[in-house]
């Protein structure tokens, strides 16, 4: 039996939901650690997990989810910029430029061979992660409204009870963009 575009989207949303759970967990841990001049091995491992999970989640959004939404809406597959432009028109992303910034940071992570300025990379990921989480919420809302998909992709849905309190503190005092 052939898989429909809606089934592919649902599968990609399920992958995103799992990815978000781990991204949010790492974000909470690294927000608690904060930026420093020197990191313990455990701190460094936590930040490495965060950057990896950030990159994977951003890939899912840009390479799978946005294109899956296009397919469900019977739009011809196009370039990544085409998918981003359509996502902006749908209100899923704040702007194409913001998505490009998220994607550029993902590329920096993937090609980060120098370890001299990891503090700057860690700072960028800590700053950008709330926008990734917000984008995921917008995706969930859009898909529920337009396709009837059900998902627990919101901060309380992808956060387990174990991490909810810690991550709720991280979000306290932040505006919709995640910036203090």
Describe the fold and architecture.
There is one protein chain. With 180 residues, the protein is an all-alpha fold. Helices cover 73% and strands 0% of the residues. It has 7 helices and no strands. It has helices at residues 5-33, 41-72, 80-90, 96-110, 118-147, 155-158, 161-171. Mean pLDDT is 84; it is low at 159-180.
Would you spell out the secondary-structure blueprint of this structure?
Elements (H helix, E strand, L loop, with lengths): L4 H29 L7 H32 L7 H11 L5 H15 L7 H30 L7 H4 L2 H11 L9
Rg from C-alpha positions?
Answer: 16 Å
- Give a count of the beta strands, DSSP E runs of length 2 or more: 0
CATH class: Mainly Alpha
Structural class: mainly alpha
CATH topology: Four Helix Bundle (Hemerythrin (Met), subunit A)
Can you identify the CATH superfamily? Answer: bsu32300-like
> Helix count, per DSSP?
7
Percent helix, as a range, is: over 70%
Task: Please sum up the structure shown.
It contains 7 helices and no strands. By secondary structure, the chain is mainly alpha-helical.
Short descriptors:
single chain, 73% helix, 0% strand, Four Helix Bundle (Hemerythrin (Met), subunit A), mainly alpha, elongated, 180 residues
């Amino acid at each position: 039996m052939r898989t429909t575009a809606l089934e592919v989207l649902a599968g990609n949303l399920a992958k995103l939901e799992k990815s978000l759970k781990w991204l949010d967990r790492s974000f909470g841990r690294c927000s608690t650690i904060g930026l420093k001049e020197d990191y313990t091995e455990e701190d460094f491992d936590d930040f490495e997990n965060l950057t990896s999970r950030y990159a994977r989640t951003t890939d899912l959004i840009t390479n799978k989810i946005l294109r899956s939404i296009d397919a469900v809406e019977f739009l011809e597959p196009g370039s990544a910029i085409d998918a981003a432009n359509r996502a902006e028109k749908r209100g899923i992303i704040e702007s194409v430029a913001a998505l490009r910034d998220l994607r550029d940071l993902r590329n920096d992570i993937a090609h980060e061979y120098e370890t001299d300025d990891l503090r700057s990379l860690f700072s960028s990921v800590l700053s950008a992660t709330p926008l990734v989480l917000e984008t995921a919420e917008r995706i969930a809302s859009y898909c529920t409204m337009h396709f009837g998909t059900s998902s627990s992709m919101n901060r309380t849905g992808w956060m387990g009870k174990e991490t909810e309190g810690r991550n709720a503190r991280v979000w306290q005092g932040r505006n919709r963009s995640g910036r203090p």
